[in-house]
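Protein modeling request. Please complete all fields; requests missing the sequence field cannot be processed.
Requester role: graduate student
Desired output: 3D structure, token encoding
Chains: 1
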Amino acid sequence: MKSWPDNRIQTLFGIELPIILAPMAGPVLSDMVIAVSEAGGLGSLPCALLTADQIRNELTTIRQRTARPINLNFFCHRPPAPNKTREEQWRKRLETYYVEFGIDPLAPVPTSNRTPFDESMCDLVAEWKPEVVSFHFGLPTRELIDRVKATGTKIMSSATTVDEARWLEDEGCDVIIAQGAEAGGHRGMFLSDSVATQVGTIALVPQVVDAVKVPVIAAGGIGDARGIVAAFVLGASAVQLGTIYMFSPEAKLSVPHREALKKAKDNSTAITNVFTGRPARSIVNRLVQEVGPMSDSAPAFPLAGGALTPLRAKTEPQGSGDFMSLWSGQAARFGRELPAGELTRILAQETLARLSAL
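Delivered output (358 residues):
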């Protein structure tokens, strides 16, 4: 059987298969990381929603069950300055929903938070020395990057444009993740805030490959062996897959989210800022239809989510996904309800078979 056309990622990360589990905050915890890494891919632990103690607990479980390479993923956004006017506008925009579900529109709402990479998280990386650390929304400060590199860890980050890819390479990234517009969840964009000019995977990947010297990982809309083969043809050295892993039993998903994924079509998603304040691809639900997809009223990331918490608490127990993020890429139809490790191995086998047939 034909071998992989590019082994740079396997060599760099010490993995067998050029398949990276997308670090999906919420759905992915230690059991899925372990399953993908044990299957030969790179399991990724998303840390943006976890405290340092929670990350240590997850890492303890991971290292008890696998010695294979893993990736720790962090957000590196700048916490927004408070904007009382905008937050009041957002509450006003949601007021009719509060009234509909019997929620006091004037009641205090929880604070929505995402933890950016900082000194304490860097201490954690130095303590555990993961083989790979990845970032979203650019990179942290040069001092923090230097500390991460000093541990021997390889660094990668997401680029949604060629300019972002060049910037990341110049700042010391060992690998670039070319995130096409088809990808689910938050856009990794950081040099631009223009959603309208985001580039699709098939156009982005070869342009990034031509622009940088480091290996490139393709992400966005890749859901089966055909997409993986295409990524290699475009010049990628590996693929990062997210949405299709959310069908696995290891995925920590709400019932409405899992049901929405099963019903999703090619045109079921939209890039929206209404859930967190930052552009992200989600399955369209009532909130996206009526308030978004892009709303000028939504507070800056990650504050928009706080005012939605009471609405989700009221509606999710009724089986409704109307007021919750339903992250998904455009290739959900390729989802297979298989354990994450089995899915990883099958995708590799099917891809090699297709490469052999070329």
